[in-house]
Amino acid sequence: MSTLELFPLGTVRGDDGALVIDGASVTDLVKQFGTPLYVYSENTLRASCRAYTQPISELYPDSTVMFAAKSYLDPTIASIVGEEGLGVETVSGSEMQTVHRAGISPELITLHGNNKLIDEIDQAVDLGIGHLVADGIDDLQLIAERAQRSNTIANVLLRLTPGISAHTHEYIRTGEIDSKFGIPIANGQAADAVRLALSLPGVKLVGYHAHIGSQIFDVNPFKGNIKALIDFTIQMEADTGYFPEAISPGGGAGVRYEEQDSGLSPESLVKEIAQSLIDYLPDTRRPHLILEPGRSIIARSGVAVYTVGTIKRIPEVRTYVAVDGGMADNIRPALYGANYTVVLANRNSTGPTETVSVAGRYCESGDILFNNVTLPELNRGDLLASATSGAYGMSMASNYNMALRPAVVMIDKGRARLTRRRETIQDIWNVFPNQY
Ligand SMILES: Cc1ncc(COP(=O)(O)O)c(C=O)c1O
């Protein structure tokens, strides 16, 4: 496998050795838009959507694929995933309003969150979104109360904690109930929540949701999750007569950040989930299936590009190559040691390589973007591009050190359009009332 396969579809080296993403040379993009820069490939994003929608429409037609707004959202992304027939799962009023404004129809919007604000619930109720996912008993009661106040009925999924611990190749049923998310099945609280939901006038219980984790590379935990949801369904039907209209087994499909990662193909995930539902259900009643593939829809389509600045050599210890971005535009390495694949992007080099740590420019020793990576010998002004950077980079970006968050461009067949402009200092100053 070549490193370039971790980048958007069809990424190549141009004649001058520069990285070319979807027909656009990274060097030209940087001349026009500067760095740090997030570059997205429309073609790759659409292909990732279709990798889910096509197999699921054949194997389990009564289904919806949801895009995770938290992975990265702007109006252009929302329009593209909407055109591809996806719904959008959101976790805040701002995400919800942004996707609604981008034209996603309310029935295709879901609102998650372990502590939804009253205002957010009211917005969701007013918009008439498809589902509010009740994350706990309090949340459920609040949703019911606010819907009733508006003389309406909110469509609710209950987020359950099935006690599935997902490892790369296995899963175990742990009965683990210590999580800020969801309502535990093991201690009977989920059953209580179902009975409560069925009794509350302001809600219609549409079904069950359970998200078991992230970066899962094997299908078995997903099958275990479906099994747990169906076991619970059968138990609750016996107890209350209630059978869900919809089942939502969450997200967590693993994506490849490094060459050695195995990845999980959307086709095989869809196949296993659809087949498990069919196998585990005792008769022909088939609930609507809601899939939330999370980062796997957008991760590969995004590339982060940085310019090399200072290079600090500590003989026999380490070489630090500092770039003009860092934890303020991608906090994942500092937050939880996430690894990426990074390449020299403005030229190709067959010369000597060295192992370096690529440091960010923010005031934290832990602001290391790419630790111990092998790169050609670098000079100030070289460009570095990191693959699989489309998810949870820009969306978690901050103004730490009053950093100006990067620009984002979308490439479509060689043409770049700015979809988010670089912040200016005025954007930062705007929050100080009547000053600056
Ligand atoms: C409810 C829910 N669905 C989907 C996802 C997406 O997961 P990921 O991007 O890790 O695959 C998450 C992630 O936290 C989640 O909480």
Give a description of the structure.
By secondary structure, the chain is of the alpha/beta class. The chain folds into two domains: 3-34 and 300-429, Lyase, Ornithine Decarboxylase, Chain A, domain 1 (Beta Barrel), CATH 2.40.37; 42-297, Alanine racemase (TIM Barrel). The protein is built from eleven helices and 23 strands. The protein has helices spanning 26-33, 42-59, 75-83, 93-101, 118-127, 137-149, 189-199, 220-240, 266-280, 332-336, 425-429, and strands at residues 12-13, 19-21, 24-25, 37-41, 63-68, 87-90, 109-111, 131-134, 154-161, 164-166, 171-173, 183-184, 203-209, 246-248, 288-291, 302-314, 318-323, 342-344, 353-359, 368-376, 383-386, 407-412, 415-420. Strand 16 and strand 17 (318-323) form a beta hairpin. The chain is globular. It starts with 11 loop residues before the first strand and ends in a 7-residue tail after the last helix. Residues 68, 71, 112, 211, 214, 250-253, 292, 294-295 line the site of pyridoxal-5'-phosphate (PLP). Pyridoxal-5'-phosphate is lined by residues 68, 71, 112, 211, 214, 250-253, 292, 294-295.
Which helices and strands occur, and which strands form pairs?
Elements: E1 12-13, E2 19-21, E3 24-25, H1 26-33, E4 37-41, H2 42-59, E5 63-68, H3 75-83, E6 87-90, H4 93-101, E7 109-111, H5 118-127, E8 131-134, H6 137-149, E9 154-161, E10 164-166, E11 171-173, E12 183-184, H7 189-199, E13 203-209, H8 220-240, E14 246-248, H9 266-280, E15 288-291, E16 302-314, E17 318-323, H10 332-336, E18 342-344, E19 353-359, E20 368-376, E21 383-386, E22 407-412, E23 415-420, H11 425-429
Parallel strand pairs: 4-22, 5-6, 5-15, 6-7, 7-8, 8-9, 9-12, 9-13, 13-14, 14-15, 17-19
Antiparallel strand pairs: 1-2, 2-3, 4-16, 10-11, 16-17, 16-21, 18-21, 19-20, 22-23
Pyridoxal-5'-phosphate binds next to loops.
